[in-house]
DNA sequence: GCGTGGTAATTAAGTACTCACTTAATTCAT
DNA sequence: ATGAATTAAGTGAGTACTTAATTACCACGC
């Protein structure tokens, strides 16, 4: 009988459920307007409870923020889908998969990227917990893979870490232009085309002649 | 009998001078703590005047912000030092010079970069005035140069705009890691070394075999 | 040189409002 | 009926912005 799609009738949830709800709503708001730019009132309204509920679960707004970082830093690792290709040493596929994953994730949910930038800019100590747990894993994976390929003689003797940053930089900049600065690329530059250009540029740049 | 070296005796400045002072102080503060994170009180204190002075020159805090963007978007163009090398068609030197200029500027004064990110994140309409006036000039210059090199047969037939973004992306990511996320690179990766790796990777990737 | 009047720069002390956070009481599931 | 979830109604400390009065500067006539 319940309409189903309407906003949930105000019900009483368990502490755990409500807590998760608050974290989710706050993450979205912080990512849109920043920590300082979001009021506890707005968060409460988004959840559909009173402000007092927030402070039952988190003693300060700051602690709510920390809980968000905690939660988000446990998300699935961005390089996992590329592991199979890495096993086969299929360079192009490794890079392509990685780029697709980075771009796709940010496009379907820009929350994490925006939160990361906001906290870095606002100088939150927590920003580098996030940075370390997510970005450094990717650095390690890619630079490790490149080191192997250099050792195997497949790549020129580039610095593996710098090479990793170079590739990640291309992809990251693409994402930023699109999601942060809202710059639409010209029509002929589809996402797939852009990815292919990055991968080819990188591999030509790095492979032995 | 004036001490000479002390802070200027003049208590009272002309409107024009004071206005510039306020803009400068506000730019620094906004770039450090964001628009919403900076109070008019702090700005006034930084300048050493009362809050009422700010509102004499700018009717709202928002208008002060607009004045900053106005000012900053007139700064020297980032690609000017590379024009000479572009004239000689010295590809490596064009890219090297560009990268040095981007990194050097941001390192000596991160204000502009931070302001740009903050305003993009906070969704200020003004963010894209800044973006357009500064970043798009660079896009045009680099992609124009690459188009010429492709036409001359020196480069493979890559998409010139995507190629420009790829190079800018590498450099931008370097700057961001360093200035925004405070990640120190390992010792062997000096800035010059990093730049050289980017340039070589890019040119190998893009030149005809 | 020397007062002096006009004007622009400057401020002290507000105002109305919003913020993070609190308290004490109420509702509901079991 | 107990205890956890929940809220209405605060509180004091900021916040952007205002107002009315005060001060320093300087061109001008003497």
Walkthrough of the structure:
Chain A is mainly alpha-helical. The first copy, chain A, has two domains: 15-72, Homeodomain-like (Arc Repressor Mutant, subunit A); 80-206, Tetracycline Repressor, domain 2 (Orthogonal Bundle). Chain A is 68% helix and 0% strand. The first copy, chain A, has ten helices and no strands. The first copy, chain A, has helices at residues 15-33, 40-47, 51-57, 61-72, 83-87, 91-108, 111-121, 127-151, 160-180, 191-206. In chain A, α1 crosses α4 (61-72), α1 (15-33) packs across α7 and α9 runs antiparallel to α10. Residues 1-9 of chain A have low confidence and may be disordered. Chains A and B meet through α7, α8, α9 and α10 of A and α7, α8, α9 and α10 of B. Chain B binds a DNA duplex (30 and 30 nucleotides) through α3.
> How many domains in all of chain A?
2
Q: How helix-rich are the residues of chain A, as a percent range?
A: 55-70%
For this structure, the CATH topology of the largest domain in chain A is: Tetracycline Repressor, domain 2
Estimate what percentage of residues of chain A fall within beta strands: under 5%
What's the CATH H-level superfamily name of the largest domain in chain A?
Tetracycline Repressor, domain 2
Number of strands of chain A: 0
Task: Tally the helices of chain A.
Answer: 10
Which sequence of SSEs, written as H and E, runs from N to C of chain A? HHHHHHHHHH
Structural Rg of chain A? 21 Å
Mind describing the biggest β-sheet of chain A?
Answer: none
CATH class of the largest domain in chain A: Mainly Alpha
Oligomer: homodimer
- Average pLDDT score of chain A: 89
First-residue to last-residue Cα separation of chain A: 69 Å
CATH architecture of the largest domain in chain A: Orthogonal Bundle
- Uncertain ranges of chain A: 1-9
Which geometry of chain A do the CA atoms define?
elongated
Q: Structural class from helices and strands of chain A?
A: mainly alpha
Q: Which chain pair shows the most residues in contact? A: A-B, 53 and 53 residues
